[in-house]
């Protein structure tokens, strides 16, 4: 059986070992600071292996990247709409 044929089972096993970790809510990128600290503390305490901690940290990092990309897109859309409004005002002589 190939190594990557059971990712769901491996993920379930890793998260089962991490049940003792507090699962923080992520609403903004800054929330990842506490989550990363929790992962590091769990690794230092031996509650999770270094490999599991690295995988959890990667998930947190990817989530933060997603939040940042979403925030960037929202800001870009607002700027583009403002530019269109200004252009329409110039065209209409306002």
Care to describe what's here?
- By secondary structure, this protein is mainly α.
- The protein has one domain.
- Helix content is 71%, strand content 0%.
- It is built from 3 helices and no strands.
- It has helices at residues 7-17, 32-45, 50-91.
- Helix 2 (32-45) runs antiparallel to helix 3.
- The longest helix is centred in the last third of the chain and has 42 residues, at 50-91.
- The protein starts with 6 loop residues before the first helix and ends with a helix.
SS elements, strand count: 0
Number of domains: 1
Shape: rod-shaped
Let me know the average pLDDT: 78
Q: Report strand %.
A: under 5%
The ordered string of helix (H) and strand (E) elements is HHH
Largest sheet: none
Q: List segments where confidence is low: pLDDT < 50 over at least 5 consecutive residues.
A: 1-9
Assign the structural class, choosing from mainly alpha, mainly beta, alpha/beta, alpha+beta, or little secondary structure. mainly alpha
Descriptors:
single chain, mainly alpha, 0% strand, disordered N terminus, 94 residues
Task: List the SSEs and their pairings.
Layout: H1 7-17, H2 32-45, H3 50-91
Helix pairs in contact: 2-3
